[in-house]
Amino acid sequence: MAKEAGGAGDAGDMRDVREVTGGKDEWARHWQYPGVPGLDLLRARYVRHSFSRHSHEGFVLGAVFRGIEDVVMPQGTIQARPGTVVMINPEVPHAAHAGVPEGWSYATLYPSAQVVAGIAEETTSLRGTAGFAETIVEDADTARLIRGVHRAAEEGNALAADSLLRIAVARLLRRHGQSLPARAPTVALLAELTAQQTFSTGQHLVLDARGAGLVAAALALVLRAPFLVVVGAAVVVTAGVRAISG
């Protein structure tokens, strides 16, 4: 929601600003604008810098406006260039580096899953967890909207920034949206379930067969095994522990 109905704010609206420079030809600004809660913004130019494999809790919507960025996705490498929009769903691992010697300049939005879910509910007929079916599309108009969100936020115009964000996300969801499959349990969730599967004997914790299976599943997830392998590891270990314990 917009902070002010009238639009223009001031420099005091900016918080969590991190200016990063890598020399005269590299710079980055990653920040949050309180006028649009649930959104991080990154505008940068990179030449030698690269991003190792990582993921985000929320969504990534990126628009390159100069140069080429190679984005390494699980299904292969895509080239983001001017006029394209990159869409990455939550928890999808990816890496990135320059696709040409001169590097790339881009504007990226990181809306939270809650923000995207709210826009999907208001503007689409998607059911369940809304996300994107494609990773990169040719869409110069939406790329301009993404840069417009940055400009409005930098000018302190909360109403414009919020409106442009909602238009951009709604446009992408209507054209490229889908209901995402249920996500596999995370290591943190499995660790919590493991703790719940233990029982206390005096001052000691004793792990039962189900807990051992969950530990095996957690290790398989850490090693980035396919989900069926994760489930299989849990089943086999649980059965093995039960057989040993009689």
Give a description of the structure.
By secondary structure, this protein is of the alpha+beta class. It has helices at about 115-125, 140-155, 160-175, 185-195, 210-220, 225-245, and strands at about 15-20, 25-30, 40-45, 50-55, 60-65, 70-75, 75-80, 85-90, 95-100, 105-110, 130, 135-140, 175-180, 200, 205. Helix 1 (about 115-125) crosses helix 3 (about 160-175) and helix 5 runs antiparallel to helix 6. The longest helix is centred in the C-terminal third of the chain and has 19 residues, at about 160-175. The chain is globular, with a radius of gyration of 22 Å.
List the helices and strands and how they pair.
Elements: E1 15-21, E2 27-32, E3 39-46, E4 51-54, E5 60-67, E6 69-73, E7 76-80, E8 84-88, E9 94-98, E10 104-111, H1 113-123, E11 130-132, E12 136-138, H2 140-154, H3 158-176, E13 177-179, H4 187-196, E14 198-201, E15 204-207, H5 209-222, H6 227-245
Antiparallel strand pairs: 1-2, 2-3, 3-10, 4-9, 5-8, 5-10, 6-7, 6-9, 8-12, 11-13, 14-15
